[in-house]
Amino acid sequence: MVAPADDAVFRPVRTGNPFEETVERLLQAIKLGVVMPGDRLPAERDLATRLNVSRVTLREAIHALTEAGYVESRRGRYGGTFVNERLPKPRRTAAKRIARELGDGLDDALILRDALETGAAEAAANRALSEAEEAHLERCLADTAAAKLTDYRRFDSRLHLAIAEVTGSASLTAATADVRMRLNELLDAIPLLERNIAHSNDQHAVIVAAILADDPEAARQAMQEHLSGTAVLLRGFLA
């Protein structure tokens, strides 16, 4: 049984800072491509229940994201809260400054990502996937390969989440989403290189092919190689 990515990001928030964590969850869903531009967020009542927050808190969070340009509310029979077609551009903050702020957190996040995502690729290849799960992986792979430069990070994130999803582990999917968000600000601060994107797309295809071929060792190795390339690129820009 699949552990959907929306269940991972729309999981209950912790007590203490419900407003801030609700904003974080909604941003996570948008930035990781779980809810795409033009898509409608789950109904307010359902979303408040899933996040375990009051509807007042949820409305305040949605208002904040509306003001920031991420969502818009529409009235009428087919109304609701929709992700804007054009999202705010990532702030091209100096990568080195972000790295300094992260400190040892950068290496921590990269190590955690490596452990989670290589394990996810292996676990996905070890599992008998349904036709729907295979189609989900192939669709996310195709969407990433066809993505425009401005949208690439989001589709790339969505593909990596899909691999975690098809392991059937909700905990692994949630952890993968969390570590990706830790690295996203830094990834957004370095330039997108067309040659690197082409290489990444080739690696994505190898990873998905290994998963669909039920070859856990090949899937793990392909994912390891892919993640090491990202780590090298990050460290290169931060040197």
Automatic annotation (TrEMBL):
Molecular function, one GO term: DNA binding
Ranges of residues in domain HTH gntR-type: 16-86
Protein name: FadR family transcriptional regulator
SMART domains (UniProt xref): FCD, HTH_GNTR
InterPro entries per record: GntR_C, TF_FadR/GntR_C, Tscrpt_reg_HTH_GntR, WH-like_DNA-bd_sf, WH_DNA-bd_sf
Top-level division of the source organism's lineage: Bacteria
Pfam families xref list: FCD, GntR
Lineage: Bacteria, Bacillati, Actinomycetota, Actinomycetes, Propionibacteriales
Keyword Kinase: no
Coiled-coil blocks: none
Record keywords, A-Z: DNA-binding, Transcription, Transcription regulation
